[in-house]
Specification:
CATH topology of the largest domain: Endonuclease I-creI
Structural class: alpha+beta
CATH architecture of the largest domain: Roll
Number of domains: 2
Shape: rod-shaped
CATH class of the largest domain: Alpha Beta
Largest sheet: 4 strands, antiparallel
Strand order of the largest sheet: 1-2-4-3
CATH superfamily of the largest domain: Homing endonucleases
Number of strands: 8
Length: 301
């Protein structure tokens, strides 16, 4: 079972008041039903959501949809649930405002409308296996922009794109997806999403720290090799006798510990000798070594 399916099933088990039911079914039918002159047809794949929509239609419109169950054998066997409405069609059309924006006055109506739209045309990617993405798939650009407007009313940073001949209203930010699930009151799905988000964020942070540590190690090794080359040049040309004891101490410990960072080298020297030196002091000595090398090379030229 996908995360989307689990979320929709949990939503379908949450009771609403009459105002919420009216807004929810308005969005669900407007974006998910096939509405004709004398009939309204809804096709669903989830038994729990089918029962939920059936109950709300019966409550809001006082009609009893006909239920048809079919077996689909393409790719894999699954049940398809079809709800057909043949009564009060004109009244239902008037309620769902087919060709105009809905009248949603309160926040609870807006949330219920988004919930109905999500049940009908919404998807959310599995947070465990892919990037964070929640979307509504719509036929009309005006509808996509209206859903986007509602989501952004709640500061969820939604956007609209065109994909093929459809329009997609989507959310990419994990915090915004989490907030929307919270607004839907789907507690179990919220906990699952948040647990996965915390785990992934922690894993990403560890990876970044490891990458940073590896980069620092590479930098220390390159720095150490360069300093060893300078030391070898001075020794080959008998120039180390021009250096004082402190610099010679640093040279000896760099040869002994070629891979450590400047800070680590300074700590080792301070612990093992009477010479207390910091990172900047060690770096200063190596600048003197490089300067002496360059001066000698320029003199030879």
């Amino acid at each position: 079972m996908t995360f989307t399916t689990r979320l929709k099933e949990e939503i379908s088990k949450i009771d609403n008041n009459d105002l919420e039911n009216r807004s929810l079914i308005e969005a669900f039918l407007k974006y998910n039903a096939v509405i004709k002159t004398k009939s309204i047809t809804i096709t669903l794949e989830n038994a729990s959501v089918t029962r939920y929509i059936y109950k709300i239609i019966k409550s809001v419109f006082d009609v009893q949809p006909k239920i048809i169950v079919r077996i689909q054998k393409r790719f894999h066997i699954k049940q398809i649930y079809i709800l057909e409405i043949h009564d009060k069609i004109d009244f239902i059309k008037e309620v769902i405002n087919l060709n105009k924006k809905s009248n949603l006055d309160s926040d609870e109506e807006k949330v219920a409308y988004l919930k109905g739209a999500f049940l009908g045309i919404g998807n959310v990617s599995n947070p465990k296996t892919s990037g964070y993405h929640l979307e509504f798939i719509l036929q009309k650009e005006s509808d996509a922009k209206y859903i986007c407007q509602l989501l952004n009313y709640f500061h969820l940073n939604a956007k609209v794109i065109k994909r093929g001949n459809k329009f997609i209203t989507y959310i990419k930010m994990s915090e915004s997806i989490s907030d929307l699930i919270k607004m839907f009151r789907a507690v179990n799905s919220l906990f699952e999403f948040e647990d996965t988000r915390i785990y992934r964020d922690h894993k990403n942070m560890v990876n970044r720290l490891n990458n940073c540590e590896l980069a620092n190690q590479e930098k220390s090794i390159k720095c150490g090799l360069s300093q060893l080359e300078d030391i070898a040049f001075l020794e080959k040309n008998d120039l180390t006798k021009l250096l004082d004891d402190k610099v010679l101490t640093v040279i000896n410990y760099r040869k002994k510990y070629p891979d450590v960072s400047l800070q680590e080298l300074a700590d080792i020297i301070s612990m093992e000798t009477d010479y207390k030196v910091g990172k900047s002091g060690v770096n200063h000595h190596f600048r003197l070594i490089k300067k002496l090398k360059e001066k000698y090379m320029n003199y030879k030229e």
